[in-house]
Amino acid sequence: MKSLAILVVLALLWGVGLLAFADRVARSTPAADPVVADGVVALTGSSSVRIEAATRLLEAGKAKRLLISGVNREVTRKELREVGRGTSRTYDCCVDLGFRAADTQGNARETASWARYYKYRTLIVVTADYHMPRSLLELHAALPGVILRPYPVATAELDSHGWWSKGGQTRRMTLEYCKYLTILGREAILKIGRNPQAQTAAPAPAPPAAKAAP
Questions:
Q1: Which of 81, 120, 165, 209 is close enough to 115 for a disulfide, judged by CB 3.0 to 4.6 Å?
Q2: pLDDT tens, 133-156?
Q3: How far apart are CA 149 and CA 136, in angstroms?
Q4: Alpha carbon distance 185, 173 (integer Å)
Q5: What residues does each domain of the chain span?
């Protein structure tokens, strides 16, 4: 009976967490006028909306460069420019394509390498609303100390308010929540394993030199 009670409590906690996660997604809206950052990164997905939004931010002067992470190796720069509805001038000068990432963790590694190369300290992150919580976890883990400003875009195939009443959408939200919990657990375990004294003793990194916009 005691084991059953524990399972019931865990199931209730899991369910409450799922509802809280879905509510967070439902309340995710991009800033009308985002603060200017060093760079903007778009995490690719099944929709072109992410790339379009990131391109608009770049062309509006909200960042110096754009990284499109997780690009299919068969896609050309011209095709991406057409998808993003950007100008040739913008894509030729200020857009970088990342072909190595195959998942969200790969997106984080690819973004971290790009941000370190340009010495960027602030990034606007563009991805789907339901994907944003997990993306931020992975990016924070790969880019400690870098300020991340979320710019979530709505997912046409997902009703963030009525997801629970539609089978396919329920599966998508539930699966994303489970992935999110997995990353939370991983980071909690890694945090416990780190040496707090070593972190405290480490000197703070010097601020990068100013870099002119391309």
A1: 120
A2: 999 999 999 999 999 999 999 887
A3: 9
A4: 18
A5: 23-158
